[in-house]
Amino acid sequence: MIDPDSGAMTPVKLSCVGPLATHINAFAACLGGEGYTSKTVHDKCELVAKLSAWLYRRNLSQDVLEEGLLDHFHADRRRQGHVRRGEVATGHQLLRYLRDLGCIRAIPPRTDTTPLGSLTRDFENHLSSERGLSPATLDNYLPIVRRFLTERFESRPIQLDELCPVDIHRFIVRHAQTESRRSAQLIVTALRSFLRFLRQRGAIATDLAGGVPGIANWRLSHLPKSLPPEQVERMLASCDRSTPVGERDYAILLILARLGLRAGEVIALTLDDLDWERGEILVRGKGQRLGRLPLPTDVGAALVDYLRHVRPRCSTRPVFIRMRAPLRGLVGPTAIDCVVRRALKRAGLNPEFKGAHLLRHSVATNLLHRGASLTEIGQLLRHSQPTTTQIYAKVDIAALRAIGLPWPGAVS
User: Fold this and answer.
1) Annotated active-site residue in 36, 141, 306, 392
2) What is the pLDDT of residue 5?
3) 262 is catalytic
4) Last residue of a domain, which of 210, 239, 270?
5) Rounded to whole angstroms, how far apart are CA atoms 302 and 310?
6) Would residue 284 show up in a list of annotated catalytic residues for this protein?
7) Is residue 360 among the annotated active site residues?
8) Are residues 362 and 278 in the same domain?
């Protein structure tokens, strides 16, 4: 249990027999570290004690504990009319805890034994072991390949030698009409890679990869979406800082609006990345690159308010976490995008693009209007290539007017 004065865990006082008895107090400490109240910790550990006794009566060890056996336990509980809300979730929490300790077997990976599954698994191994591509790239490529093969052969056996250029063209045209240009380009790249793989292993005789059409997407062909400074401030002011969630979201939005971090970089921030003595913040950027940025005064103040008065005491290291148990880091960049969308709605703003990148573009555009050079903007945004920053030159209308040529025949 949690001592209300010291915040430390004290042993759970429960009568427990059976193979799980030795885990009760450590499991309670784990739950306490995730922010559960003393009562909730006690209720969850009471269920573990009942599960342990159930295993003991059947002469079962903890080694055999898995989802199927847990289902039998819950079924017995239901028949006896002793089911409480959240018991199934507690059981799965216990399984995850024991698996992390290595006390019970891990869940065996599900293997797709169909020809489609075997083929995509071979392609996955090729991408990871031979080409050294990242798991994120595999997650992008494999669904496209599965969709292509499923649409081409439907329920019939996969005959790769039947593939021809028209199959590929139809698939790309069909999906390019409903996808963004970047998504359409990803389809093309994934199919080219897959077709090269098939040719390399001798599954097809024709070099179909060379006939995959490209998708026109000229560099710098669009303007970056951004908000003017007054709308950014309006969005920040929309946060209700009298509530814990509002205080947290305000700190997130301020980091985005002042430093131009990507959503994933905000998610990756840990308490160890805040260097208060130097007034710096460590940013874990794309390609596992690390960068340091100065911590503006207002961002630092917002972080201090959040960390001192709002962020619950817990063992997790991410800076921004859930406000309710289990206290864990926010899940993925989408969570940061949702914070931005909610703030825009509260502020009565309806820009075309509503993700976290909107504020990154806004930082760059505002700096450019205030006289910053593209080099300085690229350094702040941590662009690995100077050409990435060139798109912001298009928003400097005053500078563009100075180099624009007069229209032939126009009246001066």
Assistant:
1) 392
2) 41
3) yes
4) 210
5) 11
6) no
7) yes
8) yes
Among 210, 245, 275, residue at a domain's last position: 210
pLDDT at 287 exceeding the cut of 90:
no
Measured CA to CA, the distance from residue 291 to residue 283 in angstroms comes to 5
Domain count for the chain, please give it.
3
**CA dist 402 → 220, 389, 391, 398 (Å):** 20, 20, 18, 7
Q: Is 328 a residue whose pLDDT tops 70?
A: yes
Active-site position among 44, 77, 322, 360: 360
Q: Which of 248, 322, 357, 361 is catalytic?
A: 357
Mean pLDDT of the chain: 85
Distance CA 36, CA 325 (A): 5
| DSSP notation for 64-76 | G--HHHHHHHHHH
Task: Average the pLDDT over 149-164 and give the result.
Answer: 92
- Residue the block writes with tokens 């003595």: 277
Q: List the CATH number of the domain containing 170.
A: 1.10.150
| φ, ψ dihedrals at 290, nearest 5° | -105, 140
Tell me if 295 sits within 8 A of 254, measured CB to CB: no
The CA distance from 9 to 89, in Å, is: 22
Q: Is the per-residue pLDDT at 320 higher than 60?
A: yes
The question of whether 357 is a catalytic residue gets the answer yes
Could you say which of 44, 77, 262, 322 is catalytic? 262
The pLDDT assigned to 390 comes to 60
Residue 199 identity = R
Around Cβ 283, how many Cβ atoms within 10 Å?
Answer: 20
pLDDT average, residue stretch 98-110:
84
Mean pLDDT value across residues 182-187: 87
- 341 labelled catalytic: no
Annotated catalytic residue 222: no
Give the range of the structural domain holding residue 394, as residue numbers without chain letter.
229-400
Between the ranges 5-14, 32-41, 220-229, 380-389, where is the mean pLDDT highest? 32-41
Same-domain status, 67 and 184: no
Which own/partner pairs from 63-71 qualify as long-range (CB within 8 Å, at least 24 positions apart)? 63/103, 63/104, 63/105, 65/95, 65/98, 65/104, 66/95, 66/104, 66/105, 66/107, 67/92, 67/95, 67/107, 70/95
Residue 1 within a domain: no
